[in-house]
Design brief:
It is built from 19 helices and 11 strands. The chain is an alpha/beta fold. The strands form 2 sheets. It has a 7-stranded mixed β-sheet, with helices on both faces. The longest helix is centred in the last third of the chain and has 24 residues.
């Protein structure tokens, strides 16, 4: 143990924050505890080996299992963790056997039943627990800090509107939200853009919650939430627009081309897909090194798999979709995750209480320790570029040269970005509005777009919106003023 102690002492001295370490048996290394920003108390020898070798994912597992206790705030803890790493966690390149093993694991994990279990493991932990640290709409994905002074709630609303703008949503659009979560995007699109919306999820908690929200908002006539897998959706009536937000990370490498092919069949020719999800920061690595990938798989997202954006776009193309715009929101997710982490840290007693009510005290402590490390660790990962997040906008080309504003567009995408970002007035959509939504005249064409795909009821809604001029006061909801 003395050799490891010497290594640890040298590593601790080089860290960017003062760290005190208490080994099994009581020996102390590093800074004095009264001067330390972070204190580790190690109760198991194997955790000492993980610290000495910089395997911070395994140190995290030891913390969750109660083999290591720590004191200090999460930012200092993450600074220490990064300092312990011996090298970048995204530089590794898997060998042939590792790639084969990963493919076989992906194949085994991503069945209909397996994916449902994995989703419920994470998203059904406790609705009350998530409500403690998410925004009021419970949007559990990267926010969009359009201006630096935005709060988390404002940035989440800005993200929802950013997606709706990109998809050119309008009254009567038949809109599908794959992996709809707690309904943030689904309900925003219905309330602010007048769409006919369908959401799907595999989480029983989320399904029940969104059904209650739909009823409370009086949206039963044009918003529905279904408990089903995307692979089970019929493609007989394709949707005009599809969003998949924070979902495709659960699909698996083996299924990625099939996933995009399925989405294409669910999307009418000429329609738009917005695929928003986490991507790998490294080109070759299959997961973060140092045990970090294993930590996430064991405690947070079992079955989750990340791919570099270049690989994702290849699968998208193989699935018959044309990428027309890709946006990297990586620093936005770092800030989002720190906001979640700070909110959770400010309410640890409440978090323990709600988790214990469902899982019992011992299990609750493990879950809470895992989530504290997960939120702060992911914030660090996005800051450092170990992981990224991309919004990939794609079309289902209809093969018609005359479709669109430019010959050969083969879709309603205008092949300019102006419509996404132009500051405009309130959007009038069947009595609803959004400060950042496109102007009514911008998305209402002279005749109902693809009226056959929209259906008779949607066509009526389009006609009503096209010939009415409701007077609506200016909304301050998005900016929160």
């Amino acid at each position: 143990m003395s050799a490891h102690s010497d290594i640890l002492a040298a590593r601790l001295e080089a860290l960017p924050v003062p760290v005190a370490l208490e080994l099994p048996g009581g020996k102390k290394l590093g800074a004095a505890e009264n001067a330390a920003a972070v204190i580790f108390r190690v109760r198991e020898r194997k955790a000492t080996l993980a610290l000495a070798s910089g395997q911070i994912g395994y140190v995290g597992m030891a913390i969750v299992e109660g083999q290591v206790a720590f004191e200090g705030n999460m930012r200092d803890l993450m600074a220490a963790a990064e300092g312990l790493l011996p090298a970048s966690p995204i530089q590794g390149k898997p060998g042939a056997w590792q790639r084969l093993l990963g493919w076989l694991r992906s194949r085994a994990a991503h069945t209909l039943a397996g994916d449902a279990r994995n989703i419920q493991f994470h998203y059904d932990v406790s609705d009350d627990f998530y409500a403690l640290w998410l925004d009021p709409r419970r949007v559990y994905s990267c926010a969009y800090y359009r201006t630096p002074d935005m709060t988390l709630a404002q940035a989440q609303e800005a993200k929802l509107d950013h997606i709706c703008r990109k998809l050119r949503l309008r009254p009567g659009t038949r809109f599908l939200d794959i992996g709809a979560g707690w309904g943030g995007l689904l309900l925003w699109a219905a309330e602010h853009y007048g769409v006919d919306a369908t959401g799907i999820t595999l989480s029983r908690n989320q399904h029940a919650y969104v059904l209650q929200r739909i009823a409370a908002l009086g949206l039963q006539g044009r918003v529905r939430m279904e408990l089903r897998d995307y692979r089970e959706l019929p493609s007989t009536e394709p949707f005009d627009a599809v969003a998949s937000v924070g979902m495709f990370e659960h699909v698996g490498r083996r299924n990625m081309t099939a996933y995009f092919n399925t989405v294409r069949r669910l999307l009418r020719p000429g329609g738009l897909l917005l695929n928003h999800g986490i991507t790998a920061g490294g080109v070759e690595n299959s997961e973060l090194a140092g045990g970090m990938g294993e930590f996430i798989d064991r405690y947070i997202f079992p079955g989750g798999e990340l791919m570099h954006v270049g690989a994702v776009l290849r699968h998208m193309a193989l699935g018959g979709l044309e990428m027309v715009d890709t946006e990297n929101l990586r620093p936005h997710y770092a800030r989002t995750l720190w906001a979640w982490s700070d909110a959770l840290e400010a309410q640890l007693p409440q978090a323990r209480e709600v988790l214990a009510a469902k899982h019992g005290a011992e299990r609750a402590e493990k879950i809470l320790r895992a989530y504290r490390l997960y939120l702060a660790g992911c914030a660090l990962g996005f800051e450092r570029g170990w992981v990224a997040i991309h919004q990939m906008l794609a079309t289902h080309p209809d093969g018609r040269m005359e479709t669109g504003s430019l010959r050969g567009a083969q879709s309603e995408y205008p092949f300019t970005r102006d419509y996404m970002y132009a500051q405009q007035g309130a959007c009038r959509t069947l009595g609803v509005e959004s400060e950042n939504a496109p102007q009514r005249d911008q998305f209402l064409p002279d005749s109902p777009p693809h009226s056959g795909a929209m259906g008779q009821e949607a066509g009526k809604k389009w006609a009503a919106a096209a010939h009415s001029q409701p007077t609506i006061p200016k909304s301050d909801r998005l900016l929160g003023t």
